[in-house]
Design goal:
Blueprint (H helix, E strand, L loop, with lengths): L28 E2 L18 E5 L9 E5 L10 H13 L3 E6 L9 H15 L1 H4 L6 E6 L1 H12 L22 E5 L12 H8 L5 H6 L13 E6 L8 H12 L4 E6 L18 H11 L36
Parallel strand pairs: 3-4, 3-5, 5-6, 6-7, 7-8
Antiparallel strand pairs: 1-2, 2-4
Helix pairs in contact: 2-4
């Protein structure tokens, strides 16, 4: 699939933008245009941002914050970000792709970025023509950990900033969650050790480690959740998804889970893997069932091969040291 399918959208004057991006990608919106909390420098790697993808024709006022994975080491912004935005846009749904800080940044920077991103979209809902009460979050792998952290911690246990502004006073609680092969727990042997170490360090505080094991943080206020994973995931144990799903059931949270009898991690929409390529349609059905999109929304695009993990020429905090394909 070529990058030309990604449409360029102009942002409103009230939302700052100044980065150079490859053709076909929207201009980014910086999460903190007046100074990033805890920044280690002033380069592109220190400036978390959103890429707003607004469909030409809307089917719904629902919007989705998309959080790619990458083990808190890089951000797989191609097939778990921009390609997801294209899938959503094709159905008339607005999407916002997050490029967040990763290693050498550690907690709480990543969580700050996720919470701020959702609040920022909600703060500008009118300009984006979306409903601030119909804002979901979709996370992959380590991005699933970040998404589930927002969904289980935000507002009740928020990251406190030293100098909050008006945006930070808004709720960052998502209205629904989509978690694809997510990291959920931070304790061995369930956790993905790379994500754990990149986020919390080699020897994390046990209390923090448990607090960020999100299967223990589910309550009856946790938003409705859709889960997808493979039973023999070679990277992130299926136990992560199973533990979270059980917790959702225990607290009577509307939820749906699809676990495929397969071994894979990181396939995104999985268009090149025939046994897994059905999962996006199951998600579509769930979104319709819960009323987030109407039954007559345009159909999603057919399964297609993944685009590259990172976009050549793109700068940002999630850029890998050596761009994986």
């Amino acid at each position: 699939m070529k990058w030309c399918f990604l449409l360029t959208f102009l942002m409103m004057a009230s939302l700052p933008m100044h980065a150079q991006v490859p053709p076909g990608i929207p201009q980014p919106v910086y999460l903190w245009p007046n100074g990033v909390p805890g920044a280690l420098g002033h380069s592109e790697a220190d400036l978390p941002r959103l890429y707003p993808f607004l469909p030409k024709t809307r089917s719904t006022s629902t919007a989705v914050l998309v959080i790619p994975g990458g083990g808190y080491q890089f951000v797989a912004i191609g097939h778990e970000g921009f390609q997801i935005a294209h899938w959503l846009n094709a159905q008339g749904i607005a999407a916002f792709v997050l490029d967040y800080r990763v290693a050498p940044y550690q907690y709480p920077a990543e969580i700050e970025d996720g919470e701020r991103a959702l609040r920022l979209v909600r703060a500008h809902a009118a300009e984006y023509a979306i409903d601030p009460d119909r804002l979901g979050v979709w996370g992959f792998s380590a991005g699933g950990h970040l998404a589930s952290t927002i969904g289980t911690h935000c507002d009740d246990d928020p990251v406190r900033l030293a100098a909050p502004d008006a945006v930070d006073k808004l709720s960052c609680h998502p209205d629904f969650m989509i978690l694809a092969y997510p990291v959920i727990g931070m304790t061995p042997p369930v956790t993905h050790m790379g994500s754990r170490e990149n986020l919390l360090g080699a020897h994390p505080n046990p209390q923090l480690e448990r607090n960020l094991s999100n299967q223990y943080q589910v309550t009856d206020k946790t938003p409705p959740t859709f889960l997808f994973a493979t039973s023999f995931d070679p990277t992130v144990p299926i136990q992560n998804s199973l533990d979270f799903y059980r917790a959702l059931l225990d607290h009577h949270v509307p939820s749906e889970a699809h676990f495929y009898d397969y071994s894979n991690h990181g396939c995104g929409l999985c268009g090149s893997i025939e046994p897994l390529s059905t999962w996006p349609m199951l998600l579509r059905n769930w979104l319709v069932q819960l009323g987030w999109i109407p039954p007559n929304a345009p159909p999603p695009p057919p399964p297609a091969p993944n685009v590259p993990v990172w976009v050549p020429g793109l700068q940002g905090p999630g850029a890998p040291a050596t761009a994986p394909q």
